[in-house]
């Protein structure tokens, strides 16, 4: 294996590790490790403006775990930790990144919402069946922010990053970080007010497909696969989801308690808190798009960063 690197996505809800190389024979990415660790780094920070001590303690546990995995590979210093929404906004976000650098020797960087959208796009387009030529909208629901990229073939027509992530919505509209159906209408009104320019862009460009990147969409795929899949992803990196099954699950889950959602078949417990809010956002986008298909892509920011840095490593 030639080029290999590790990317850590320091998300508001989860930390994710990708270790991958490029298989020159097959001309495709070769994934060695793909790990997710529930951290909830944003808990408390959205209200106070500071990453909280208990959240930082969880972060160090996750990073210690990732560090041990990384040591098994010859990466020649190619390890990058990427801070997104909560690290952009927290007053001690830069300090946290500096501590990562000194503690592990990793490169640790903070990126803008627009840069995040660019990397998500780079990852998702690599996962889709080829040729993929119809106008489509990528949606990546994080814990703090949600990114959208509207594109046709390789041209980006619109992109935006909005502070409407799953944990952010819990913080704004639901007491004790627990979803409540009584606040659904207020949340919908708030989200629609934030994404007015996106709604206008969908009217202008009329995307035919909504492609959900990783995270909450992976959970939707897991829920659907309990009854509707034979082999998970069947060797592919993207799959079409059933819009009908999505709405069936949405109606069920938003009426449940947190404890009931955690036990729902296919549910990852750390997603149970934010999934109803995420499904409300997905519903709003599907309504804005009209008749469209729904897809899940297993690639997102970290895969996009891998492809970008790999291309930059090739001598010109």
UniProtKB/TrEMBL annotation:
UniProt cross-references to InterPro entries, sorted A to Z: ATPase_NBD, GppA/Ppx_hydrolase, Ppx_GppA_N
SUPFAM superfamilies: Actin-like ATPase domain
Stretches assigned to the Ppx/GppA phosphatase N-terminal domain: 20-309
Single GO MF descriptor: pyrophosphatase activity
Top-level taxon in the UniProt lineage: Bacteria
Protein name: Ppx/GppA phosphatase N-terminal domain-containing protein
